[in-house]
Amino acid sequence: MPRKKVSIIGAGNVGATATYYIAEKVIADLVMIDVAEGMTRAKGLDFLHAGPLRGYDVPIFGTGDYAQVADSDVVVITAGLARKPGMDRMDLLKANTEIVRTAARHIARHAPNATVIVVTNPLDVMCHVALRATGFALSRVIGMAGILDAARLRFFVAEALGCALSSVHAMVLGGHGDQMVPLPRYTTVAGVPITELMDQAAIDKLMERTRKGGAEIVGYLKTGSAYYAPAAAAAEMVEAILTDRKHLAPCAAYLRGEYGIDDLYIGVPVILGRHGVEQILELELSDAERAELATSAAAVRKGVDELNTFFKVA
Fold it and tell me: I need a labelling partner for 54 at 20 to 30 A (CA). Which of 211, 242, 290, 293 fits?
């Protein structure tokens, strides 16, 4: 059986860390691609040197040549700019649109059968860019956000209750940002909803901390943003797809009427397998939860409208 292949576009903190996490799973050959070719080659070689000590034995190649994505089963797009002083939201959107669009066109040319995982922010909008530029099936362009947001919520719950992280499962819907929709009723400890274990004030505090989870890290770093947890979330998605695990997790998927939302990428629970998004699950939501999700979707749609108006992405 041919070996699986994963390409990571962008060898910065998130991309390089994701490469490392995937390498340790020993499930695929790995290629990192970045315009900073020397840095990318150096990181690839450094990862290979760590292999004998960390127990992975997979090829890892760093390059600046997009053609090296050829025959990839999965491509993860992490390349993009963080907002810099003096840069407004539209400047960031324009810059990252060009980066993601360029990457996606190369993927379509060299790896037409790949599944694409988008990590670049603003994530939900960048999924639309990648979808349009590749022309791939909706199921094969997916955004990484919900897994990260749910992981943060899982940690906060475990910390608050003093229980094992492995006992906590969480569900977060909506766009990746302040208007995400954590669902306490679907967040459980050993199968028990946290609504049975904590009072409402404590739950509200955890939900708000989850919404601000990325900003909390940025506040400590001052420059830069989180990368260990985002990389781990991307690696989990890669593993689910390559191993056809049928993993249930919240991801940014393209909706066509589910949850009353049309033609938009938004975080919802999906089944991940070798075909990408193999099923979108519709949870029973309360009126309040559905209203929150609609508000979150409206914020994402505003970003897509800006994309269409200012950048004419076809």
Answer: 242
